[in-house]
Write a structure and sequence with these properties.
The protein has helices at 17-28, 35-45, 48-58, 65-76, 79-84, 95-104, 120-128, 167-181, 183-190, 203-219; strands spanning 5-10, 32-34, 85-89, 112-117, 130-133, 139-141, 150-151, 158-160, 194-198. By secondary structure, the protein is α/β, with parallel strands linked by helices. The chain has one domain (5-118, 167-219): P-loop containing nucleotide triphosphate hydrolases (Rossmann fold, 3-Layer(aba) Sandwich). It binds adenosine monophosphate. Residues 13, 35-36, 39, 56-57, 61-63, 68, 90-91, 93, 97, 164, 173 line the site of adenosine monophosphate (AMP). The site of adenosine monophosphate has 16 residues, from α2 and α3.
């Protein structure tokens, strides 16, 4: 394995993307750039962006393209991303964002666009049992027998259900995915860059599939 890669991981929220992105970022030694995590950090810090993002996120909507493109452009220009690469999680989410990303990455193009494919019904089931560390973002699965309060094994932070994981917000996000994000599949297919990875298997099996796909894409 050669360290370094510029990757996009697409897929419905709750498809296990976050966990796989953390693993891929360790495997390829690249930063995991999650726009959702960046927005949640802004919410915690109470910045102007955070106040706006909280309203949008709690309603299960999407933050505007211009704001998101600005945030990602700045993040991708930092030395770690320029030097080693990155894994983008949660961006792009609209065709407008994908077009802007193509322009941002003309000099250092993306190695692989992966679509982690998990059907909607299964995603709904998974999200309802999803719990996340408020501090470091590690994901956990609640099985109904969990200790309260729940402390993160990685950093000791509080493990809770995300405010936007209510059934209403989740359904709205999945509808938005079909409307706004699924056209990205066709967008990258047209460019002959999309690699669909079957996300219905154990996390270890899915991870192995992703690594195989990335290594294949890096070999060209
Ligand atoms: P995530 O953690 O990726 O599920 O993102 C949580 C929420 O942040 C989403 O439901 C959106 O409201 C917002 N968000 C994250 N990334 C983007 C993006 N690329 N474009 C617009 N909104 C975003």
């Amino acid at each position: 394995m050669i360290p370094g890669a510029r990757l996009i991981l697409l897929g419905r929220q709750g498809a296990g993307k976050g966990t796989q992105c953390v693993r891929l970022s360790r495997h390829y030694v690249v930063p995991h750039i999650s726009t959702g995590d960046m927005l949640r950090a802004a919410v915690r810090e109470g910045t102007e962006l955070g106040v706006l993002a909280k309203q949008v996120m709690d309603a299960g909507g999407l933050v505007g393209d211009d704001i998101m493109i600005g945030i990602v452009r700045e993040r991708l220009s930092r030395p770690d991303a320029v030097g080693r690469g990155y894994i983008l999680d949660g961006f792009p989410r609209t065709v407008g964002q994908a077009e802007a990303l193509d322009l941002i990455t003309t000099q250092l193009p993306i190695d692989a666009v992966l679509d982690l494919d998990v059907p909607r019904d299964l995603v709904l089931q998974r999200i309802s049992s999803r719990r996340v560390c408020r501090d470091c973002g590690t994901n956990y699965v609640a099985d109904g027998h969990d200790k309260q309060p729940w402390i993160c094994e990685v950093c000791g932070g509080d493990v809770t259900q995300r405010d936007d994981d209510t059934p209403e917000a989740v359904n709205r996000r999945l509808d938005l995915y079909e409307e706004q994000t699924s056209p990205l599949i066709a967008y990258y297919q047209r460019q002959d860059r999309l690699i669909v990875v079957d996300g219905v298997a154990s996390p270890d099996v899915v991870f192995a599939r992703l690594v195989e796909a990335v290594d294949g894409a890096k070999r060209g």
